[in-house]
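Duplicate of #3305? Posting structure anyway:
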């Protein structure tokens, strides 16, 4: 009996046998395995952060492209087309005609310019918050289109006449029997349609898929 106790040890004696708990806590080199586990968890989280950053980069790249395209087109329209005859692109079916629009997209709601300005600013804030949990590439493209379009029209509302937050948006794409619009409106509509399609498919911004 004494010989058996000497071999396996007892809980009260130094040099007692090492139980599973002790083997989990301390490594053979004397380091604390709990700290090692924390570092391992952090290392495991790192690959998950990189895809989110790439998706956020796509979002802002799409937004920057849509915004730049809208801004350049409006500058050209104001400089070359405003106060001039419309340019026929496809006969009467499609023209480029400079129009100042105080309403929302496609000329709706001209009496609520300030309200539409506030809504556009709120959309930008919401998109910025969604970017923190963005892992889906299609959602990044959709939100980028919305962000670029919202920024394009918001720039007009802030900097164009008749005043800050009341500025009229520059529209110039005039299809026959349809409202005149601009590239920012197009980006907003395309982004909205894509979001509706993604929602029908059950795809969330964080990349999870819900199936009914």
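Output from current build:
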């Amino acid at each position: 009996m004494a010989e058996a106790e000497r071999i396996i040890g007892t809980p009260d004696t130094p040099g007692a046998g090492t139980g599973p708990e002790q083997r989990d806590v301390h490594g053979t080199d004397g380091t604390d395995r709990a700290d090692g586990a924390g570092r391992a968890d952090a290392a495991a989280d790192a690959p998950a952060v990189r895809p989110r950053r790439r998706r956020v980069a796509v979002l802002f790249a799409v937004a920057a492209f849509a915004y730049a395209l809208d801004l350049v087109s409006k500058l050209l329209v104001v400089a070359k087309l405003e106060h001039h005859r419309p340019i026929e692109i496809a006969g009467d079916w499609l023209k480029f005609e400079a129009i100042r629009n105080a309403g929302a997209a496609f000329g709706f709601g001209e009496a609520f310019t300030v309200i539409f300005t506030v809504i556009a600013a709120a959309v930008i804030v919401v998109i910025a918050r969604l970017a923190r949990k963005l892992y889906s590439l299609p959602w990044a493209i959709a939100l980028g289109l919305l962000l670029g379009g919202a920024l394009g029209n918001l720039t007009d509302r802030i900097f164009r006449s008749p005043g800050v937050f009341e500025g009229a948006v520059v529209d110039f794409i005039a299809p026959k029997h349809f409202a005149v619009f601009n590239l920012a409106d197009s980006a907003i509509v395309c982004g909205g349609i894509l979001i509706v399609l993604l929602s029908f498919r059950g795809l969330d911004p964080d990349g999870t898929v819900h199936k009914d």
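Confirmed duplicate; merging threads. The helical segments are 2-8, 20-25, 33-81, 113-130, 137-159, 183-200. The CA atoms of residues 142 and 191 lie 4 Å apart.
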